[in-house]
Each structure stands twice: as C-alpha cells, then as structure tokens.
C-alpha cells in the first residue's frame, strides 16, 4: 500500500467513536467494560491459578535509546551490604534497603493512554492535541483516569500457536482479521470475542527475543496487527487489546514511509486502549494445555498523573 | 516502652517463620495464599464494581527528600503541543506524546519486598543481608518474585471508622490487636480474617492529608499498627497487609529512640508483605454503605528486577 | 509599579540586541567576550589561588518541588562496601564504585541558556519560541553552544558587603543601578565593569541560607537586581552576569502580579547569559582581604545538548 | 602477561603514595598542583583562544547499558512550544523552558574521583573501601573535594598524531612510556611534562568513533595507556591525566582475564585523578598548527556531593 494518509483518513472516518460517550468522555473503549462484564469475568476463576503478564523491568529490556527511550535504570539508596556492615545509623539493629528507578513509562509492559497518539493534531474525542498533552503531561486523558477500570474478562488469541511454526509468527507477519477469526475458530468457544472484552494477541515474538535477544532495536521487524484490523477492533466493541510485541501493529508497517498507522486510527479515533510488551507465554502454555482461553484479567496502570502511558503488571486468573 | 532491642528480639524469636517453607523460600507469607483462596476470593465479585487503591503518583505526594526520597518526577519526551505544531517529523499526520519518570520505588502506593528490612544484618529466612541486597539490588527476594502471586481475598478493617472520630484516627494512635478485633466485630462477619487473606487497615490519615496537606514530612506522626500486633500478624496467617499511611506502624514509634520496630520483626522474621500509602477511602465508603468488607483483590507489584519495593495499583472488585 | 507588561515592552524596545550580531547569532552577549579579553583576564592571575564558585549538588539544596524541580538525587551503582565484601565479580582484587544522578539542570549553580525565557512567544534574536525549544530541547541556542566561550575577566560586585549589614542584603532588597555604581566605587578601581566582563553580584543571601536553611522555597523573598538595571546590563556590554541567589532579580518582583520581569527583558532581548545560585562567599572573603575584585574566571556549562540551562563549576583564579 | 594480580601488587608496592600527604589526605596527586603552577599556567594564555574539551552530553554517547550506564536522558519540563501556545499560566507574556537530566556521572566527559576504584578492598591512602564509599556515596574523597583545585598548566601529548596513521592509534594499541617520551620529543619543548601538570593524551579514537559510531560498546577495543606506564605516571609527579577514550588504559587490557589493572594501581595507590572521554580534537588541531602544546587548563568537576566521578567541561586557553 502506498498512501497511508488516505487509508488512515478513510478508516478514521468509518470507525470514529468521537462523541459516542459524550463530549467530555476520557475513557474511550473502556466504556464498553461494565460491572456486568466484571461479574461474568470473575466467574471464569475456576482453578485459582494466577499469571503475571508483565515482563521484568530491567536493563535486559528492548530499549536502545531511540527517541530517548532507555531500559529502566534501577539503583539502590541503601543495601543489605551496608546494613550488615553497620553503615546506616539506625538504632536497635534495624537495617534497610531502598531504591529508585528512572525509566520511560513505556519501556516495558505498558498501556498506551489515550493521549499517546494524535492524528493531524487531534486527540481522542476530537480535542486539539495541544489542549490535551503539554509539557505538564496529559491534562485531560492522563493514564490515571483508567486506574480503576481495567478489570474484566480477558481472552487470549494465540496467533503464534494457531498460525505460526513452533508457536511463533515471523517478523513482518501482518495479522489480518481473517487470521484473528481463524485463531478464534481454532481455539474454540472460550475465545469468542465480544463487547467489553480485553483481548490479548500473542505473536510469539517475545519468546523469540528471549531466546535470541532483542537485537539492535525492539522497534525493528515484528509480527503484529494489520492495518486492516481497524474495523474488527471497532466492530467487536472490545474494551482494550494487548500484544507481546513492542509496537502492537506489524513492523515494518504495511505502507511505504509510514509510522504506526493503525495507532493513528485506533487511539485518537476509536479511543482504544492498547497494551504492549506483555508477556503472554506462560498464560498461553496454560491455555493450550486446558483448552480454556478466557480468564479474569486485572490490569490497572500505575496512575502517574498526566502520563500518556504507564507500566502495568497485568494479572490473569483462571 | 524503653528497650526496643529486647522487645524485637523476643517477638522475633516467638513469631519467626524462618524455615517454615524451606530454606530456599523467597515468598514468605505469600505462601499462605493458595489457588483455593483465589477461587473463594473471586466468588466475592457480586456487583462488578472496581476500585483502584492507588494514590496518584505526582509531585503532590508525601516525599520531602528524607533519605533521598522525592516525589515522582514525570517529564514529557514528546507532547501534543509539539504534535499540533508539526515539530515531530513523523509522516502522514502522525503525532505522539511520550514520557519518563524518575522516582523512588516506595514514593507512593507500594509493596515492601522481603529485602526491604533487616534485623541485625539478617534478611528473610535467616539469610545474610549482604548476600541478599547489594548495589545491584535484591538478588534473592526481589519484588519480581511476587509478580504473579498477590490476587486473593481482601478484607478491609476500617479502624478509622470503627474507632475514630469522623472516620479518622488521630496521629500517634497505636492500633492494637484488641482494636483490630473490635473493628472486625463492629463490621461483622464479612470481615473475618484468616489464612491467606490480604488485610487492608484504614486509619483515615490519608483523608486527613488530602484535606490538610502532608506537612513537612510524611514520616511524621501518624496512626498505625502497634508493635504488639506482631503476634496477631503471625497467628492469623494472613498473606499480606496494607495501610493508608506512610509507614504501616504507628508514628512516633512506641519506644524511645526507635525506628520502625514492627517492620524489623515482621519483614525479616515473618516474611510478611506490607503495603503502604494505599488509598482505601473510596473502597471504605462502599463497604460502609453495603456492609460488605470482603472483596476480590489483585495487587501485583511492577516487577522491577531486584527491587526491594515497588509501585502497585491494587484493584478491589466487589 | 503596577504595569509590568508596559515596562517590559518599553525596556525591550530600548535595549534590544536583536540582529546586532546577525540573524543567525546564538551567542548573545557572549559575543562581547573576545580573545583580547581573555588575554587581559589571564593576566589577573597573580597569586595562583583558585576558588570554586559552585554550591554542592545534593539534597540540601534549595529545590522543594516547585514546577517539578527537585534537588539532585545521587545514587550509587556500585560501592566500596560491595567491593570490600567481594560482591562485584571483578578479577584480581579489582573493586569499583559508580554512580548516577537525576536532577533539574537548574537545580543548583547554573547558567540560564538563551532558550530559557521568552517574551510573548519570542526567543533570543526574535525567533519564534516554538521554533527554538521543543520537547527535544533547544534546537538553536542550546547550552552546548556556549561550551567553550565563557572564560575571561570576572569582576565581583559584593553588594552585600558594600550596602548591607554584616555582608548581607535583606530579602526583598532591589539592587539598583545606583547601588551597583556605589559598590564599584566602594571597592575601587579593580571592580570597573566594561565590555566583555563577567560580572558576579554577591547579595549575601546564600550565606544566610547556609546559616538558616532555605526555608519553604528558594523562590521566596530574596535580594536581587532591580528591574531598572536593564539599561546598565545593556550599556555596560558585559558578557554575562551571575548572582548568589535562586533567581537573579529581586523577589518578590517589583510589580504586582509579576514573574521575573527582568529575565523577560534581558534573556530574549539582550541575549544576556545569567548565572544563578553561585557561591561567591569564599571569593568575596578573599577580595575583601586583598582589595582586588577582578580575576580570571572560567565557567563553561556542562554541554547537555539542547539544554536551556546547565550546571557549571565556575573557577575564579587570582 | 598472564598474572595481573602479581603485576598489580608489585606496581602498587613500588609506586604507592599512601601517607605522602598525611593520613587525612583526600586530594592525592592534586597536591602536586600548587599556586605557583597556576601562575605559570596562566602565563600560557597568549592568543586568548579557548577550547571546550567536553563531548556533548546526549543520546549519541558511548553508553549501551553495561552495568546500568546509559547515555544522558535529557527531558523538558517546559518548552518554547508551550510558551508560544500560552499553556504556561505566567503573567505579562512571560514564557519559560526548563529541563532535567538523568545520567550516570561517568557517562561522558568526566573525572574519576579517588573513590572510584579499589584494590583488594582498599581505597586511596589505605582506607577501607567500605569506610569510604557506601550507598550514600563517597563520604571521604567525594568529587566535591576537588571542586576548586584543577586549574593549572595543561600539556597535550598527541600520541595519535605522533605515532598513528592519519592522527589515530588503532584499537588495542598500548601506549608505553617510550611512546609517551617519543611523543614529547616529536612535539618539542612546549610538551615537557613535570610536577603539577595536567596531561592530556590524545589517541584519536574519539575522532574515529565520531566518524564510524561507537559500535556495540564503548568499553570495547581502544588504544590507551599501557599498564607499564604506572612508573611514569608516578615519577613525573603529574597532578592529573586525561584521555579521549572511554577507559584511559588500553582495551583489551594487556593481561588475560583482567579488568582495568592500571586503574587498580593508579587510583587507589597513586591517588591519581583520571579524566576520560575528553574531546581533544579541536585543541589538537590548534596545537599541531602553532606547535605549542601547553596551555592554561581549568577543569573543575561538578561537585555532586559524595560522587565517585563527575561531569566536567574542561576549558583550555592558549
């Protein structure tokens, strides 16, 4: 495809949710997730097994400095070695360790907030980008607005297992709507996707990077959603979606000279919450083993006020 | 009380869990929380209402520089203002915002890891503190070891409401075992505490700081657990406990010249997970209204590798 | 004075240096400092005594979180305690310590860059502020452009000693042009100020904060230059000026409802380099003792690319 | 060479300066630099031309995450774009830009402090490493102790030009004492090295990395001083030395399984100040052109309290 601008314009016009939940809305597709969905989701806890879907936050992550994104730098303010040596000046044998972190908010497992991406200077719900995200952060749709909302039914679509070799899709593989439906069909009834669901798409790339390293840059070639899935993402009325890749959509993108065109449609126009760099491997193993691809999922972002994205430790319970 | 060293020694000896889950254990009291407890916990979702128990992470927090702890500094790498002005160099009208944070891992709503506190150079399970937490972080019991475990039944003990005026305990109020039991009795059957539970003790201090500001330092006077609750914390076999205060235990501490003596017993000796600065106010309102003080609680820390504490966005669902 | 907007407009019109050094100029008043001035400046080294004019960079500094400015947070990546204990994994008895810092670039002794302040959306030399400083930093007049320029003749005007009690001006004291001239006269011939000089104005406030602490905020009341000195700053053709205070000009400012009006004239319109929070006390003692108020001064900012201000360790040698 | 431990032991014994300046000394070889040397150094200013010897501090630097060292992350708190758009809330048309940085203190042009390296748990002057550098930083020889000292005569030894092809030594080239003497001889009388001098050794590697990039890691192969220069470094009584490379000494090191053995001798035993990643190229061009290799050099580190190394913007004036 050679004209991303046109394709984006057409998709945005067709699938826009602007105004759907009122002019003041800051939640976008999270509006689809209601108490009723939570009640149904909690009923999916049958065996009581829990899975963290977060990657570890450390220097082994995928960031290589692009646009000033580094891996998290974790340093200690106090240590056990100091405590043991008696350096700390506390009374009665008390010793402590303490630490700090400096990190991009989207360095590892994370949610994109609705202020993360703009289309021609417009943010979610038609607002001017400059009215929303200034140097002081997102003053309207900051990630803290989603702090208590993202808990409901999760569905794993293990595209890597359904469509790939050895459970992995190759880099550059564009997952189309047909592929998603094929995955659902292959997995069976527990992976039906509907209103208010939180959909997790596993490509298997993370398993590969774990084995082979991230290479020169995580934003390089990767499997991911095709631009053409915008309609499916809209029509299914899902509340949110996450992948095990750096960038959610296929890399390189499907247009010449493009940068994340699907983001440009689904974040500002659909108001869709996107998760990236989730670790779905252990959950996928379990789902493959018991044939159940739905579960209770809690994934509240750390509410950094005004953030346009934030770390999250998503917990799936089956 | 004037001899914290003796009191700590006696409590540590009496309530130690060292070896209880094997020499290699890194989970401490989280071992009490089993799949069975998760199944029971999830069954508490009846109305589908969710509550984030995280404070906002921003410059309005309680840190004032003590021991190099600041409030989180959130800065933007890209903004909507830039996107709108066309400064960013992306193709086809794409615009983005991105951000970073620098923060102490225990600056706001958080879990203490088992490597956070030592007693006379000993860490959880009897390990030498210097073998556990070096300048590279906690190499044994880092917070990432708890990433997928903390999801189960939560119980709110609203001591502020049960014992205080207008829902708040005064600063310096030591919550004793009798107070905890009195709170449970006042609240009724849904607040019974037992093995594997995650107990949330609300003092009301956070509501006060919200109204009056944090003052010169959050480590100042505050209500909190009495040193004497160590036995209750041990005998109930709870998996974890959290408060709405900076420091969990009463401030000033109950001994002359002491520093967090209850920490010194319950972290290294019980292996107890402690949460601090949780925002329990909205949940407490709801519990007071419907009389149900138990709920499904998910509270996985952000798994910063080797961290001795970490931010968490705990989600309670009723 | 009640109309800062008018006063700023008039001063800007009268003292503007826009275009003086060409349309492409990025150096502003540093253009006044030529090799000839350096040759003369070096001749002032007579006794070989050197003075660092930098405050210490640590948590005892003046920042209290205003506009996300904290004191510098310095943390260790490796320590001597670890090295001694043999935790580090290096061969042949090698041990190391290493460290990081997170800090506002203007948290302590610093230069304001020319991109630091704007007047009605205009930056130095008439450029649009949005063309100069984006989220990627100052792309035109970043502090790195001054990296090798600031070395020349320094002159200390010890207004605290000349005009104050016990060497200190009271907070709120506005230093006028007459005061500057009075100080020069009192100090004698070595403090004549002319083209290309780097002028250091000591108020004595730092000595006071050292004794009494910074209080609730360093941006509070302080002695400093009067708005009326804009003409002197322009006509003397000095290359740069620095004070021992947080904000260079008098605080509170001399207009109702104003914020740093002198900055608004001298940075964007004169192109003047301003230093703040310099520690002039030891140098001032020496100057008072030997009666010589001129010296060789080197004060190159740390060249953080695109920074609008930067830390500096100015070294005066007499 | 196969036994670094023995070689280090022998060199340390032979060249130790422990006790030379008293038991309490914290300045090491900076003691050699006296007021007399400053007077002589300032006399070298003849043409008034100044050179910053600092690399730019930005994401293009050499750090790739080894031991948690990243390049500096510079972010904006306020921008000109915001000011122009009127987002900032200041009165009378005032606008501002402000910024922060998070960086390892040794990420770019820098001084190693005396607490940076230990030999078998011993720091400079024979102190126990654990008594010197804890998690709170270097409590004895922190870089702030050198804040006002490093101003004197600088000498450039352009080994790259004297010994290499096209002004560059190849990676892995060990510069021996003979090479240093050969360079001095080739350059002529202005490069004689003696007591109190600050010696700058240019290898030319920086010019190469500027042309070809830093590659996978700056700690990789590089020209640098041979282990055998320890005697020369001691006997010349120089005050400090700096190179244009990441690690001062030749990489790979000259022993099997070694890590920076020359550091292990000269920092803790000689008390020698070492500068790394200095940009000597422009100065070297000038020295080659006029044949004068001596100059007035000011290089005070940013005095981060307790730091074991710190950024510096060294200024040479000829």
Kindly name the structural category of chain A.
alpha/beta
Using a beta-carbon cutoff below 8 angstroms, give the protein chain pair with the largest interface and the number of residues from each chain: A-B, 109 and 110 residues
**Morphology of chain A:** globular
Percentage of β-strand residues of chain A: 15-25%
The CATH homologous superfamily of the largest domain in chain A is named: Putative cyclase
In terms of per-residue confidence, which ranges of chain A show pLDDT below 50 for 5 or more consecutive residues?
A: none
If you compute it from the alpha carbons, what radius of gyration of chain A comes out, rounded to the nearest whole angstrom?
A: 20 Å
Q: What is the H-and-E element order of chain A?
A: HHEEHEEEEHEEEHEHEHEHEHEHEEE
Q: Could you say what the CATH architecture of the largest domain in chain A is?
A: 3-Layer(bba) Sandwich
* Main pleated sheet of chain A: 9 strands, mixed
Query: What is the helix content of chain A?
Result: 25-40%
- The beta-strand count of chain A equals 17
End-to-end CA span of chain A: 41 Å
CATH class group of the largest domain in chain A: Alpha Beta
**Multimerization status:** homotetramer
Biggest sheet strand line-up of chain A: 1-17-15-9-11-13-14-5-16
How confident overall, as mean pLDDT of chain A?
96
């Amino acid at each position: 495809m050679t004209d991303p601008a046109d394709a984006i314009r057409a998709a945005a016009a067709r699938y826009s949710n602007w105004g759907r939940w009122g002019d003041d809305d800051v939640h976008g597709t999270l509006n689809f997730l209601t108490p009723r969905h939570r009640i149904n989701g909690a009923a999916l806890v049958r065996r009581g097994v829990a899975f963290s879907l977060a990657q570890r936050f450390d220097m082994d992550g995928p960031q290589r400095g692009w646009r000033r994104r580094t891996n998290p730098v974790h340093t200690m303010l106090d240590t056990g070695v100091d405590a043991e040596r008696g350096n700390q000046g506390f009374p009665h044998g008390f010793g402590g360790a303490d630490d700090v972190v400096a990190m991009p908010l989207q360095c590892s497992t994370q949610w994109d907030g609705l202020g993360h991406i703009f289309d021609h200077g417009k943010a979610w719900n038609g607002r001017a980008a400059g009215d929303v995200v200034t140097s002081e952060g997102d003053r309207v749709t900051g990630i803290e607005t989603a702090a208590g909302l993202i808990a409901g039914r999760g569905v794993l679509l293990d595209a890597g297992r359904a469509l790939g070799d050895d459970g992995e899709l190759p880099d550059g593989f564009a997952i189309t709507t047909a592929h998603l439906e094929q995955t659902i069909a292959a997995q069976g009834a527990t992976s039906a996707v509907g209103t208010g669901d939180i959909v997790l798409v596993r490509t298997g790339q993370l398993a590969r990077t774990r084995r082979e390293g991230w290479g020169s840059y995580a934003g390089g070639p990767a499997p991911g959603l095709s631009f053409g899935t915008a309609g499916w993402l809209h029509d299914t009325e899902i509340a949110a979606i996450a992948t095990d890749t750096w960038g959610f959509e296929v890399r390189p993108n499907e247009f010449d000279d493009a940068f994340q065109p699907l983001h440009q449609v689904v974040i500002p126009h659909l108001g869709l919450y996107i998760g990236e760099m989730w670790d779905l491997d252990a959950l996928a193993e379990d789902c493959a083993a018991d044939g159940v691809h739905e579960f209770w999922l809690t994934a509240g972002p750390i509410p950094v006020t005004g953030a346009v994205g934030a770390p999250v430790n998503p917990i799936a319970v089956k």
